[in-house]
Design goal:
- The structure is a single chain.
- This protein has helices spanning 8-28, 44-62, 96-104, 113-138, 150-174, 179-185, 200-226, 229-236; strands at residues 4-7, 34-36, 71-73, 79-80, 93-94, 197-198, 241-244.
- It has 245 residues and is mostly helical.
- α1 packs antiparallel against α4 (113-138), α1 packs antiparallel against α7 (200-226) and α5 packs antiparallel against α7.
- The protein is elongated, with a radius of gyration of 22 Å.
- It starts with a strand and ends with a strand.
- Mean pLDDT is 80; it is low at 38-47.
């Protein structure tokens, strides 16, 4: 039987890891990255965008949900609200077939190339974070892998995830010059949003990135706490469950 070691710092690291992962996950599936007002449609794409927003409002009305008074878009431009009650405000699930078509398109007007890179960074970084969440739940018992401490390994890959999330956050304003965004926000350009404003989901992704970086830093303190003198004395006494500050 393994020796279970739980410390305040190891628990804090696990909580920070879970919080960062959840923030990034929720932000990706929320249509609150971009908040815009009504723009008179001036081409086929903008007419389609306006029509989709009207249908979303009508769907909210028919299903008894609170009608969203904002024209909001997520990092996935074409997404739909799930049926029934929403888990969180602005919940939006991308249409996978249309997303695949947009990701493979070479036309920046169909889907900004910068956003494609951002989605790739967020997806890869989130996959790494989910893996470290699993490891953080196992560290009370399993603290070593083949080459090094689990804390050291998780700290390294979490910092890599924080870098990926940062690239994803920078890629979003880099795509504001796309025709899709111009149709929504008027005279927008890369890193200049025009008549729109940044939504809460973007700031949630920023908070998730900060939590990820903090979680990476906390691995150093979490590792030291499991190797403290008090922990070693308890192990020498034969304790199988050790809980220390």
């Amino acid at each position: 039987m393994c020796t279970i070691i739980v410390t305040i710092r190891s628990v804090l690291w696990a909580v920070m890891t879970i919080a960062g992962s959840l923030m990034i996950l929720v932000s990706l599936f929320t249509n609150r990255w971009l908040i815009g007002g009504f723009q008179v449609p001036n081409n086929g794409r903008s007419v389609e965008s306006t029509f989709n927003n009207v249908m979303d409002k009508f769907s909210d009305f028919t299903e008894g949900r609170k009608i969203d008074d904002k024209i909001a878009f997520g990092i996935f431009l074409d997404c739909v609200k799930p049926e029934g009650s929403l888990i969180f405000e602005g919940e939006c699930i991308p249409n996978l077939e249309k997303l695949k078509e947009q990701m493979l398109s070479e036309n920046d007007n169909d889907f900004p190339h910068a956003w494609k890179g951002g989605i790739a960074c967020f997806s890869f970084g989130l996959a790494i974070m989910v893996f470290t969440v699993v490891l953080s739940l196992l560290t009370p018992c399993c603290r070593y892998c083949f080459c090094c401490s689990v804390f050291t390994f998780c700290g390294s890959v979490q910092m890599f995830s924080a870098v990926l999330f940062t690239l994803g956050l920078l890629s979003y304003p880099a795509g504001w010059g796309s025709r899709k965004v111009v149709d929504i926000c008027g005279s927008s350009q890369p890193f200049y949003l025009g008549e729109c404003q940044i939504g809460g989901a973007y700031w949630m992704a920023v908070a998730g990135t900060v939590c990820t970086a903090l979680a990476s830093s906390l691995t150093v303190f979490a590792y030291k706490s499991t190797k403290s003198h008090k922990t070693q004395y308890r192990r020498q006494d034969g304790d199988k469950f050790i809980c220390v500050p």
